[in-house]
Amino acid sequence: MTLSTKTFTGYGALLDGMIEQGWSDGLPVVPATPRKVEEFLDVVGMKGEEIVGEILSRDITVRAEHVAAAAVMAGCLPEYMPVVLAATRGHLSPLGNAHCVLATLTGALQTVILNGPVRTQLGVLCGEGAFGPGSRANATIGRAVRLVARNACQSVPGDGDRAAFSHPGRYSFCFGEDEEGTPWTPMHVERGFAAGDSVATQHSMTDYFSLCDGDSRGPQELLTRFAHLARCRPVSRDAFLGRDRTVVLVFGPEHRRILGGAGWSKADIRAFLHPLLTAPHTRTEGQQETQGMAPLGGPTESSHYLPDPEGILIVAAGGAGLNLSWVLYPHLASAVSTRIDHDYAG
Predict the structure, then answer these.
(1) Bridge partners of 157?
(2) How far is Cα 99 from Cα 135, in angstroms, rounded to an integer?
(3) Residues 6 or more apart whose Cβ sits within 8 Å of residue 301
(4) Domain ranges in the chain?
(5) Quick one: CA torsion of 317, 321, 324, 328, rounded to 10 degrees?
(6) What is the 8-class DSSP label of residue 185?
(7) Is the predicted pLDDT of residue 292 greater than 50, yes or no?
(8) Strand partners, 61
(9) Which of 302, 300, 299 is nearest to 280 (CA)?
(10) How buried is 312 (Cβ within 10 angstroms: 0-12 exposed, 13-18 middle, 19+ buried)?
């Protein structure tokens, strides 16, 4: 994306021009005027030309003005800019593996998970409706990260983005952990940050499956069923990522009551799940393997390559009333948590 000083006769002409240039995700955008971009840069104390990250294999350099323009276009408020900046830095870090994630045929999406005071200060949905529309913060922060990917990182369908089908989550996917709704240790604290820190975890994912289970009465039964679901897809080995392989599990409140009511912590859940998820690949007798595809002849279970239990990231989120939890499958990238350099506690 080359920032332009071209003038337009009105918003309609501006929107048409931006869509023609390929700068929009197809939805209307807020005009990224120089004054608005400068306003967003002022919040993070950066100059437009400062480098946020690079994708060396694509000869791409992402500057602060690119991130600010994307945040403006997505409809963010200025106070969202530090969050978009932190998530973008995570995406562009080595473990974020941006080149592969953006160019993959699978259409991997960029998930942003928020922890700490930023959630309450910005009104981020963490409980009911956390995965969907309804909050300006959730919608526009997630969208801004994708607009950075599209405009600054050249992830445009048919060009740098080679997704066969793509994914609706590529419009926006951002939610927060329901830290107040559980006694569990928040994910960012487990990852080494202070409880009062605001943290953005960027998780590039290919797909997600849900476990709707109202029959399990104890932690072992529930988690065994969850592991069976999770193994419907593999988490594959990658030499570049090594031991840093991660997968994200999101537990809803009904399942958290079963686990927490029995005194199980996140560490207990990981210890139980890790051997189940990493057990060798199994195949039902009579199934026929097909190259690059699931075996024919019935269900199979695939092993997760997770050398360390800490690679199982557990998040509490979602609303009451449905016995539902989720597994968010990674692409060839690891979840990267970045401290948001802004005081949201005041």
Answers:
(1) 161
(2) 30
(3) 228, 231, 232, 281, 282
(4) 11-283+298-339
(5) -30
(6) P
(7) no
(8) 54
(9) 302
(10) buried
pTM here? 0.92
| Burial per residue of 57-78, b for 16 or more beta-carbon CB atoms within 10 angstroms, e otherwise | eeebebbbbbbbbbbbbbbbeb
In the structure encoding, which two tokens stand for residue 259, read together? 């686990």
DSSP 42-64: HHHT--TTSEEEEEGGGTEEEEH
192: which residues sit within 8 A by CB, 6+ positions away? none
Residues 134 and 298: their CA atoms lie apart, in Å, by 39
Q: What is the pLDDT of residue 282?
A: 66
CA 31 to chain centre: 26
- At residue 265, the pLDDT reads 98
Tell me, what amino acid is at 25?
Answer: D
pLDDT in tens, 222-255: 999 999 999 999 999 988 899 999 999 999 999 9
The conformation of residue 216, written as its DSSP 8-state character, comes to -
- DSSP tag of 78: G
Q: Answer for the pair 153, 160: CB distance below 8 angstroms, yes or no.
A: yes
Burial tier of 209 (Cβ tally within 10 Å: 0-12, 13-18, 19+): middle
280 three-class SS: coil
DSSP code, position 196: T
3-state helix, strand, coil in the chain (%, to 5): 40, 20, 45
Contact partners, residue 227, CB within 8 Å, separation at least 6: 273, 276, 277
- What's the distance, CA 261 to chain centroid? 29
Q: Lowest mean pLDDT of 13-27, 53-67, 124-138, name the range.
A: 13-27
- pLDDT in the model for residue 290: 38
